[in-house]
Design a protein that fits this description.
The protein has about 290 residues and is an alpha/beta fold. It has a domain at about 1-180: 3-Layer(aba) Sandwich (Rossmann fold), CATH 3.40.50.1010. The protein has eleven helices and six strands. It has a six-stranded mixed beta sheet with strand order 3-2-1-4-5-6, with helices on both faces. Helix 7 links the parallel strand 4 (about 135) and strand 5 (about 155). Helix 2 crosses helix 5 (about 80-85) and helix 4 packs antiparallel against helix 5 (about 80-85). The longest helix is centred in the first third of the chain and has 19 residues, at about 1-20. The radius of gyration is 48 Å and the shape is elongated.
C-alpha cells in the first residue's frame, strides 16, 4: 500500500511539473491547522511522511493568520500551534480578522496562484513559480484548490498521508495540451510539402490501388469431402439403389478360465471351438455319442 501511494505521489507531481511548471525540486507545501491537528490525532509524522513520498527537498510553510487563529482558539489547537511554529511563517500584509478567520487568507493565496500561474509548460531557469501544494483537511479549501490547474492537495486520512488524484477539469487541460503538442503547425506542413515535391513523394490518384472484384468462388481443392452426384429425373439409371446394411454376427468367445483350460487339456483339444474326435473321448462319452448318432 505504501508503494502504491508513493507511485501516485510521483505520478501527480510529475504531470503537474511537466504541464503546469510546478517546482517539485523545491516544493513549497502550505499547511494549515486542520492538517496538523489531524496528523497529531492519527499519530502521523508529517516531516517523515512527506519526505518518503516527495523527497527531502520540500519547504513546509504556513501563514501568520493560521498561527494567530490557533492562538485565538486556545487549548484545542495547542498541539498544532507548537508544530506550526517550527515551520516557515509567511507574513501576511493584513491583520488577522477573527470574523473572517484564517480560511479567508488561504483562499486569497489560492486565487492569487490561479491568477498568476498561466504557464502551461515546464518552467525555465529564472522563472518564478506561483504554484504550491496545499496540505489541508478543510473541504472548502480542497474544492477551491481543485480549480487551480497544477496545484496538488494533500490530506490526512486512514492514519497516513494522501494526495488527491488529478481532477477531471485538469485532466481535460492536459489532454488538450497533449493534442496541441502532437499537431503539425503551418511551418512544418509547408516544409513537408517542399520535401514531397523535391523527392517526388506526391500521391497520385492513378497510382491508387483499386479493389479487386472477386468472382464466384470454386470448390476448395484441399477439401476432403467427396463430391455429391447431381441426380436428374430424366436419367433413371443414375439413381443408385442403396445397398442393404450388412451386419456382422460376432460370436461370443468362451472365456478360457482355469477350469476350462484343464478340461481342454484333459481331452486334448487345442481350441474351444474345435470338434473333439471319437477316439479322444472316454468310454462313457463315446457310448452316448454313438447312441445319439
Amino acid at each position: 500500500m505504501r508503494v502504491r501511494r508513493a507511485r501516485q505521489f510521483m505520478k501527480v507531481l510529475s504531470v503537474y511539473e511537466r504541464c503546469f511548471g510546478l517546482a517539485t525540486k523545491s516544493l513549497e507545501i502550505f499547511m494549515d491547522h486542520t492538517f496538523v491537528r489531524q496528523a497529531l490525532m492519527n499519530h502521523v509524522n508529517i516531516s517523515e511522511s512527506i519526505a518518503n513520498m516527495v523527497g527531502r527537498n520540500f519547504r513546509p510553510v504556513t501563514s501568520s493568520c493560521v498561527i494567530a487563529e490557533c492562538q485565538a482558539i486556545g487549548a484545542l489547537f495547542s498541539g498544532a500551534l507548537e508544530v506550526l511554529k517550527g515551520y516557515i511563517p509567511l507574513t501576511c500584509r493584513h491583520e488577522y480578522n477573527s470574523a473572517l478567520g484564517a480560511a479567508w487568507c488561504i483562499r486569497k493565496r489560492i486565487r492569487t496562484a490561479r491568477r498568476r500561474s498561466k504557464i502551461f509548460r515546464r518552467i525555465k531557469e529564472g522563472e518564478k513559480c506561483f504554484l504550491f501544494a496545499l496540505a489541508s483537511n478543510d473541504v472548502e479549501l480542497q474544492a477551491l484548490a481543485r480549480t487551480v490547474p497544477g496545484m496538488p492537495v494533500l490530506f490526512i486520512a486512514q492514519r497516513c498521508l494522501n494526495i488527491e488524484p488529478i481532477p477531471k477539469t485538469t485532466q481535460d487541460i492536459i489532454d488538450n495540451l497533449t493534442l496541441q503538442s502532437l499537431a503539425v503547425n503551418a511551418c512544418e506542413s509547408a516544409r513537408l510539402k517542399q520535401i514531397e515535391e523535391k523527392f517526388g513523394l506526391q500521391k497520385e490518384d492513378c497510382m491508387k490501388n483499386k479493389k479487386k472484384k472477386h468472382g464466384p468462388s470454386g470448390p476448395n481443392p484441399l477439401s476432403c469431402r467427396k463430391k455429391h452426384l447431381s441426380i436428374t429425373m430424366t436419367d433413371p439409371n443414375s439413381i443408385s439403389k442403396r445397398k442393404p446394411r450388412q451386419r456382422k454376427n460376432h460370436h461370443r468367445a468362451l472365456r478360457k478360465t482355469w477350469a476350462m483350460r484343464q478340461v481342454l487339456k484333459f481331452y486334448g483339444i487345442s481350441s474351444v471351438h474345435a470338434q473333439p474326435t471319437p477316439s479322444s473321448l472316454p468310454a462313457p462319452l463315446l457310448s452316448t455319442a454313438t447312441c445319439n448318432s
